Each structure stands twice: as C-alpha cells, then as structure tokens.
Amino acid sequence: MKRLATHSIWRRPLTPILRYRAPQFFRSASSDTTTSLPPALLQRARNLASEHDRLSKSLSDSFDTKTARRVGELSNVATALQEFDEAQDSLAELHSLLTSQDAELRQLAADELEPTTERVEALVHKLTAALTPKHPFADMPCLLEFRPGPGGLEGRFFTDTLFRMYKQYLSRHGFRVRIVKYEIADSAGDSTGAAGENPVQEAVLEVEDVGSYDLLRGEAGMHRVQRIPVTESKGRTHTSAVALWVLPSFPESNAETADYDDPESIFYINPSDVKQEVMRARGAGGQHVNKTESAVRLTHIPTGTSVSMQDSRSQVRNRVAAWQLLRARVAQQRREEREEMAFSLRNSVLAKDKITRADKIRTYNYSQDRCTDHRSGLDVHNLPDVLEGGETLDRVIQSVREWMVARDIRAMMADEEAKATAENGNDKKA
Length: 430
Fold this sequence. Notes:
By secondary structure, this protein is α+β, with helices and mostly antiparallel strands. It has three domains: 39-131; 142-252 and 354-412, Alpha-Beta Plaits; 271-346, Double Stranded RNA Binding Domain. It has helices at 39-61, 65-97, 103-131, 152-172, 212-216, 255-258, 315-344, 348-351, 383-387, 391-429; strands at residues 11-13, 19-21, 142-148, 177-184, 200-207, 221-227, 238-248, 274-279, 295-300, 305-309, 360-365, 370-373, 379-381. The strands form three sheets. An eight-stranded mixed sheet has the order 4-5-3-7-6-11-12-13. It has a three-stranded antiparallel sheet with strand order 8-9-10, with helices on one face. Helix 1 (39-61) crosses helix 2 (65-97) and helix 2 (65-97) packs antiparallel against helix 3 (103-131). The radius of gyration is 26 Å and the shape is globular. The model is unreliable at 1-34, 253-257, 285-290 and 345-357 (pLDDT under 50). This is Peptide chain release factor 1, mitochondrial.
C-alpha cells in the first residue's frame, strides 16, 4: 500500500507578506470512513471539474484566449478535487485494513490513519477555498478613503490616527503607498490631539500593489473609538467614529485594463455626465492659495457623486487625481448595488451578514487597551501596537479575512442548494 505523508493544514498565500489560514468548517466523524464536503458544494466542484476537462480537450483542437482563461480559472478546483478524491480513497482503504487478519497490516493502517485523516481535512479546506467566488476587484490596487463620522473634533483627530495606522501597517509590509489627498479642517484652527494628531477632514491613501484591494476590503466600514479627549476636563470617555472606504484603483497609466472607454465596464463614466469646475484652493499653502484656480471639483450627475481635489498646485494633476477617485467611487457604488440585488435573493439569515457602510465594524477602546472586531468577534489587547500598524493589527485583519471566507462559503452553499431544490422541483413537475 502506498504510504501517505502527513500534510499540515493548507494555507493559501494572498500576498507576498501575509498568509491566510482557512477556517475549520467541516470535521470528520470518528465512525465514518471519510471526511466530506456538503453535497451541494461537492456537486459544484464536480461540475466545475467536468467543465475544466471539457474545455481542456477543446483547447487541444483549437486555441482560444477566452477558453484558455477559463481553464486557468478552473484549474485550482480541478486539482484540489482530484487530490481530495485520492485522499478519500486512501482513507477508506485504511479503514478497511483495520479489520484485516494480518496484524502487520492492521498496525500499518493504524499508524497511517491520523496523518491521512489530517490530509483529507486539509484538502477539504483547500477545495472549499478554491470554490469560493473570487471578488471581481481582488487583483486591483486600491484607495483607502478616510472621513470623520460622528464625534466632532475628536472624530477628526481619530481620522488622522487611523490614517497613520494603515500607512505604518502598509509600510511595514513593504507596500507602495501614495498620499492622494490629506485635507485638514479649516474650522479646527491650530488644535491638535493628544498624540499630535491633525484634525483631518478627508484623506485618501493609494496602495499601488496589485491584490491590495483583496487584502484590505474587509477594513471598509465605521471604525469606532472610545477614549478621553485631550479637551475633556472631567475625565469622561467620548465615543467617536471614522468612516473608511476601500475602493478599487486604476491608475491612469493602466487605462486600457480599466476599460474606461467600454460602456459595459463598471468603470466607464460618460464625460458628458460629469460637471467639471475649477476654483481657488483654500487652507494653508502660502502665496499659492486663493491666487490661482488650481482646485478641481468633479460631479457625476446621475449618481450625485462629487470629488474635489486641491493637494497639488497643478490644475492638471488635481484633475487626474479627481478623475481617478471619481471612477473608483462610482465603480464601488455600482458594485454595491449589484451585491444588494444578489443578497436580496438569498436567505434572510444570510442577508443579515451583509456589511454596509453604516455598520460599526470595529471598536478601539483606549481605557481598556482593547481592539474588538464586531464581525469576527476577536478581542485583542496592546492597543498601541494596533494603532502603530504592528503584528496585533495583523491578527485583527486576518480574523476578518477568515470571517469573510466563512460568509462567502455560506452564501455560495445557499445558492447551490437553492439551485438543487429548483432543479428537483422541475424534475418532479416533468
């Protein structure tokens, strides 16, 4: 009998820096000879593997770019399914050998049972992750957009805190970042926070590395802070919030990939639908301020989305940056509308997992030295390390990624089960 080596729990690299560990969804029963996927999920895997084999054969006859791309997309599922089936067969063979009359074979089977079971479990996770639909923006760079929410001046100070946190986190992991916009509230004067934070009105940080959207998309939402403001004389804790958006980004140099000129593209914006205005910059800036019309404001009339940019002294540069941000916001809005339609068709139990911009996804509590993510349920301490973008923040972000995969798998399983139910209903009617 072929000896199977022990394999560790499967991990899928998501970036050159971080690795994601698939959560333990399915467990083997000790009395069963196999560890299996839910029937709907396993059937989906077999259907996709059959499509992979059929398309691969057609490629041998005539090459087609679209077909080759689809084969590449399905190859992970086909490979994972083959490995899973082989491991299942090995596990079943071991269970049968446990009842053999040959003592040596029984001992060999007993020695191999645990590592083989672990391998099957690992392959269940691998196949499940391969089946999870890939987010359409997953391979893109991204824009992080920060805006103060409820909380007045304290909310603006914490906006700067979060801006610094993500900037340090990305720098620590070697990502290329660029400050697209960093605007301080005029009404705040020269006031600063306890740690020297600026009263930020709006900030936009671009992460230029491909795949950064997939890494950071779980960070979008309302971030709540509970702390004693520097201006508080009675030692009372105040609650403030900061809104963070994670948007797909397409630099102007990559316009062909972005399909800006394709009306069917989610990134397409008809120039005639955009109102363009130029104005004088405001705020600190020396002689340049209020003397040249370098600031640019773009308004997408159909959606009412407005973008203003004045960070550069060049009107041309401000216009390029404004168009980039406008396209990202409109594309994200269109994507959210499509997701809302899809979630409305699913089971209401699944729909409540949908996170919207208004939800408070995370709390930073200074007095308790605690950071809590309300989706994954993870509590971590050492808040200073979190706010410095340290390893504790890595744990929080990874827990959110695991929560998102679990949510996506449940949604995918609900879709497959609904399809199976519909097909069975049609068969009975026929």
